[in-house]
Structure formats: C-alpha cells, structure tokens
Design goal:
This protein is α/β, with parallel strands linked by helices. The protein has 5 helices and 11 strands; from the N terminus they run ββββαβββαββαβαβα. The longest helix has 24 residues, at 220-243. 26% of the residues lie in helices and 27% in strands. Strands 1, 2, 3, 4, 5, 6, 7, 8, 9, 10 and 11 form an 11-stranded mixed β-sheet that branches. The structure holds hypoxanthine (HPA).
Length: 260
C-alpha cells in the first residue's frame, strides 16, 4: 500500500485531487469496509486525497462510511487531516463565500455510528475539549493570512443528520445555542479522527444563508454553485498549509483517546 503522511478530505464540491503529482488511485480494505482515495505528492509531501461523498457525489452525508474512511487513512500512515465542508451560515457576519476554521461542534446527528470503541473494545471516553486540532487550526489561520485569504479563526459547527435541509425553527434554535454554521458531515468524522489520535481540522466554506434567512427556498444547486466559485481558495489554502507543515507533531491529539 502507498504511504501518506497527510490527508485532505474533500467535501461537497471538492472531488478533484488537483495539484497532486504522480497520483495513484487506491482502494483500501479496512475492518469497517472499503475506502477510496488518491495518493500523490506535492512539494515533497505524500498526501492522500479522499472525496468524502465519492468521486461523483453519490454517497449522501448520512451514508458515508466514516469509519472505513478514517481507518483507511490511519492504515496508510496518515497522521494529519485537513477536511473541507460546505456549510450554511446562521450569522449575517459570515456571508456566502466566507471561510471558517471551525473550533467547536454541536452534534445533532441521530442515526450514525458514534465510535470505534464498540463490540468488545474497551470502554473509552474520548476528550473533546479541543475537537479540531488547535495546532492545525493555528497553522491554517497563519497560512490563510500569509496568502491574503480571509478565514474566521473559529466558529461552532452544528452537524445535522440530513439529508434534508433544516427548518427555519431549527435554525433559530441552533443560533440561540451558539451555532455559527450548519453542515451534515463533521460528525462522526471529527470524533473518529480523535479516537484514532489523528490531528484533524476542518475549514468550512459558507455556501448559503441557512433556511429562513434569505426569504428564498434553499437548493443543493445553490450550494454547488457557490462552492464551485470558491473551491480554488480552499485548494490554495490546503496545499500551501500542508507544504509548510512538519511531519513531527507535538500536540495533545495523539493522547486524546486509546488510539489503536
Ligand atoms: N444546511 C446543512 N448543510 C449544508 C447547508 C445548510 O444550509 N449548506 C451546505 N451544507
């Protein structure tokens, strides 16, 4: 199997390994199922690119095999993951096109695998004080600043079950609870990465104001169109961030869980 140190998980609108040189498509069998990624090189770094919803966006958010995806990256040697996510915004200060390096989540999923630690595994309660790696967030913030890309250095991601969009009443509730952006994929991906002791960060791209905020119905096409306009920024930020990351890691992510 080809080795990679870093991974990019591409969310909605990010399906193309883009800048990777010498790309190899890999199908990785894990104890949790099969995962697909492309492994290649950028400025001397080995990077795995994994489109979360499949190459043609055929897997809906509630059916993504999150466990297979994270385990496949672990098995490939990946220690640090940068993930993209299309999100709706609940804040007028975060208009479509805004980037948010999220630092907290609120989990409103209902029916997804929660953990690697089941079926005879030891009972494990993983620390979620810093759910998205603080070191990677800081590095992304600094890289964005250097590139002249505006990215909010924090924000709370509300994860819903989907695949439907939210009702305006749900959005009002989430906003009152402290949510900033809403998406359908950060849970359980973030949690599973933490359970495996990986450094993981998400940059959310606002594609729309949330339901009930714009006066018009919300469509998936609107999300795709906005993503297509801004995906080049995300790509630039991620590849530059990885090019300037060290492989040696010193942060608490490795000791957050029983990372086996
Ligand atoms: N809600 C949930 N997920 C999303 C949205 C939204 O408004 N926009 C993009 N992904």
């Amino acid at each position: 199997m080809v080795h990679a140190d870093y991974a990019i998980i591409g969310g909605t609108g990010v399906y193309d390994p883009a800048l990777l040189n010498n790309p190899h498509e890999e199908q990785i069998e894990t104890a949790y199922g099969v995962a697909h990624c492309t492994i290649g090189e950028y400025k001397g770094k080995q990077i795995a690119f994994m489109p979360r919803h499949g190459k043609a966006h055929h897997v809906p958010p509630h059916q993504v095999n999150y466990k297979a995806n994270i385990q496949a990256l672990v098995d490939s040697g990946v220690k640090q993951i940068l993930a993209t996510a299309a999100v709706g915004s609940m804040r007028q200060t975060l208009p479509p096109g805004a980037l948010v390096i999220v630092d907290q989540f609120l989990d409103f999923t209902k029916n997804r695998p929660l953990t690697f630690f089941e079926d005879g595994e030891p009972v494990t309660h993983t620390d979620m004080t810093d759910p998205y790696c603080g070191r990677l967030r800081h590095h992304l913030s600094q890289t964005a600043e250097r590139l002249g890309i505006h990215a909010a250095p924090g924000g709370t991601y509300v994860c819903t079950e989907g695949p439907r969009f939210e009702s305006p009443a749900e959005i009002r509730m989430f906003a009152q609870l402290g949510g900033d952006v809403v998406g359908m994929t950060s849970i359980p991906e973030t949690v599973l990465a933490k359970e495996r002791g990986l450094c993981y960060a998400t940059v959310a791209m606002v594609t729309n104001y949330c339901a009930g905020m714009s006066g018009a119905p919300l469509t998936h096409q609107e999300v795709l169109d906005e993503m297509a306009q801004n995906v080049h920024l995300m790509r630039k930020l991620f590849f530059e961030a990885i090019a300037t990351l060290e492989t040696g890691i010193s942060c608490t992510c490795q000791s957050s869980a029983g990372n086996m």
